[in-house]
Write a structure and sequence with these properties.
The complex is a heterodimer of chains A (about 400) and B (about 550). Chain A is an alpha+beta fold. Chain A is built from 8 helices and 19 strands. Among the domains of chain B are: about 5-60 and about 260-340 and about 485-540, FAD/NAD(P)-binding domain, CATH 3.50.50.60; about 140-245, no CATH class. Classes of the chains: A alpha+beta (about 400), B alpha/beta (about 550).
Amino acid sequence: MSMIAPPWKDGLSPTPLHPAVTECAAANDWVRWGDYSVARTYSSWEDEYDAIRRHVGIADLTPSVRYRMTGQDAEAYLNRLVTRDMRRLRSGARCATPLCNEHGHVIDIVHIERVDEHIYDLAASAKMLPWLLDSAIGFDDVAIEDVTGQDVIFGLYGVASCATLLMAGAEDVEKLNPHQIGLYKIRDAAVVITRTGALGEMAYEIRAIEADALNVWDRLLRVGKPLGLKPVGRRALDMCRIELGHLSYGQDYIGALAARYGNRPRTPAELGLDSLVDMKKDYFTGKRAFRQKTTQHRTKVIALHCDGLEPMDHAKIFQGDRLIGTVTSSCWSPKLKSIISLATVTDQTLAEGVPLTLDVPRVFELEPDHMRINATVVARPFYRSPARNAKVRGS
Amino acid sequence: MNIFNRLRDRSAPEAPNAFKGAYDVIVIGAGHNGLICAAYLADAGLDVLVVDQRDKPGGMASSELIDDRYTGAMGAHIVEGLSAKVARDLKLHKFGLDYVKRQLDTVAIDGEGQAVRFGADMRKSQDSISALSPQDAQAYPVFMDKMQRYTQALTGMLSPPPLLENIGRTDAMSTWLKGVRHLDQNEQQEFVRLCLSSVGDILDEYFESDLLKAALAFDGIQGGRLGPRDMGTMAALLWRWAQREVSKDRLSIPKGGMDTLAMALLKAAQDKGVAFRSNADVKALMMEEDQVTGISLDGDEHVYAKRVVSSADPKRTLMDLTGPRHLDTESVRRLKHLKTEGTVSRMLLTLNGMPFFTGLSDDDWGERILICPHMDYAQRSSRAMKYNELPHELTMEIVIPTVFDPTLAEFNRHIVSANIQYTPCEPEGGWQQHKEHLATKALDTLSYCAPNLRGLVEGGDLWTPSELASHFGSTGGHWHHVDHTLDQAAMMRPIPGAAQYHTPVPGLYLCGAGTHPGGGVTGLPGYYAAQRVIFDTKTNEQGGGL
Ligand SMILES: Cc1cc2nc3c(=O)[nH]c(=O)nc-3n(C[C@H](O)[C@H](O)[C@H](O)COP(=O)(O)OP(=O)(O)OC[C@H]3O[C@@H](n4cnc5c(N)ncnc54)[C@H](O)[C@@H]3O)c2cc1C
């Protein structure tokens, strides 16, 4: 009798980059991402942050959830699925868009790449195959496949990201405009490179097949070294993400398919994404809810400058004596030299400059305690590099 | 087996109300619900067009001329529970509706010579039952009186239920359940128990005769997918009996065949100004800005309307005519799960003499005859059908309309009209290889119960559920368009988000058997849908959405 491996997985998988990544991961600080473990910090998050904001950082994004849609109806299918007009997404381009349920509640904010006329890649924050398949009923020619983990994906962030790619051999990559996709070579390996502008930096996403992954990583690390390149972990990435004011799935909002309580999901307007809802295009799931205004907008996402020196996740927010919301993401911002937070409040009229008080829960020597901290409403994003969309001149 | 011709000379008269290019409301389907809906709409002053893909009105409740010698129905053969209010409002008698027989009794036979007959006359019913079991003859009035309490409580629930979306928001639910709230506490508890039970379990508590139990259980399972031992069938029985309550004639046979009803409805509608077009197959709805603006017919012809009401089944209406591209994923998902596969095959035999069913006396011949000797017999068949197999034993409902209505056939010729329950919509391997087999089996079953029948057969026809589907333009050829089980009833019917005759699409309504309170020839879906549209017209609502 042969032993058959169980179809479920115990624990987390390493990504194909794991052997190379562990060599750099002196801090031995790992975090779960989907079914994988990735580094939270490699050696020091301060250095990693610095690399992203001043030089270049490289991250392993392999665990990000990906679906591939192929077929003549893929465009129409996606157009019914998401709130932005997919007919305007040209081949070789990418965009971010919310997708909603029938109530107009956000399921996720996804990135869609039109790889080819009839081939799309969708990067999501969480798995949602049943939703994608049911959405395909009535579209004859579209195949949907979960391709998560099939390719190895690197993120490259910072002013020197383009230079790193050029030195690694990706000729002409400087001609790639933001949100464009191209095919390149790094040390004989064919790679797909997308210029993303992620984290508010000049940034690229590089996709390679698993067999080439270690090779490409090696090459980027080696050529990037003189430029200040460092592998960066989730912690530094998340700080930059908060500085950019981007909302994180499951942290700043609950996806409509994942929410356990009926009042938790949010509309695009509540998340400040109403400009990504195109009411002029063909029908999409949620459009009627938007048109008929059947779903209430109750909350608003705001950005806060906070006093104090510690992140204040889950702090209660008061305006005078009135409890108006909760902090959802918070971190020290090296750029702003201050604690910054993203928060959800029930007061939709709250304007910039309004002073608020935060009630921060903490445990002090085994006793529950709390601190009162002052905060001010500010504009989102907190910080964004001018280089993110800059034209790059050839070396 | 032979053969079947469309009824030419009785096909719809040329529309007296001239056809135009734009209307207030277009009704898709001239089944009884579509016509009733149209008549009420026109009565409210709206300009209405009814279109049907067939060459005549009536939908699944109409008749055909067979071999130029017989008039028979290939869908409904008994008018059951036609709302007295609708019949009165539309003056159907003035327009020719009359019955050769009202308040039909039910006669069940077991094929071995035993029979039991019950119906409106309690004494006669008890007499007949006592031949099977004196115990049951005593229990029968108790059971019927008790059930009468619950069916009366249910009649209030035939009116439109509150929307699923409104549950927890308004007290509409308690208004809708008024009839149930008027029961006393013990009765309310019993009501809940009954509704969630199988008809088999409940009947076992009252009766000992297998034949009687099977015959009573029949009303809880006919047309559907469930067997008498499946939960929810007691609710189905009470529901059906509640529907009969709204008609004073209960089960009746129209004079001149089912077309008499169709023609009376058409004339009533036309009298109010409704225009009718036959042979008009709606290929798609026209939409502008997510709003229905009309229909497009075969041959790319467009007809415009502010509102469209469809009596085609919900799957056809929303998935085929509207299309998933105009719906939210959730609606499509719910429609995907909708159970619409028909379970009844229709057989019609033409005979040159009267078949004698063993155990029946000659005044039983015109009644509703059931072949269903035992609840387990029906349960076994339902199980076979569940796995897409033909059942070994056939459960049948038979009517010989020519007993009371000699105009349906030449002298001393008869029609045996049979509904064969528990035949799969698409049996394993397809109908081509099974249809002959089913026909033989049905004929064998009938000849077993009426030995002289085989020798009298001149011709006939058999329509499987999938043939019924293509003839009547419904998705699965289902009796109720959408199976009437607890998960597809009330505010879930046909799907949440499309209850109360609205659909998610503004301007599009449903009015057929797939809506509340379901199939059969009650006319209530058509009536209530019309009320909904009239209300929306007055308040200038477009309907649609959640
Ligand atoms: C075999 C069988 C036996 C039955 N026996 C009985 C019985 O004895 N007693 C009883 O009370 N009930 C019986 N029923 C149930 C009853 O016949 C139906 O529930 C009822 O007739 C449904 O009426 P309706 O008006 O809602 O729909 P239908 O009668 O189905 O009418 C819908 C109409 O829409 C038309 N249509 C559909 N799509 C389109 C399109 N795209 N374009 C144009 N037109 C379209 C169809 O041609 C049809 O005429 C039986 C059902 C079946 C299948």
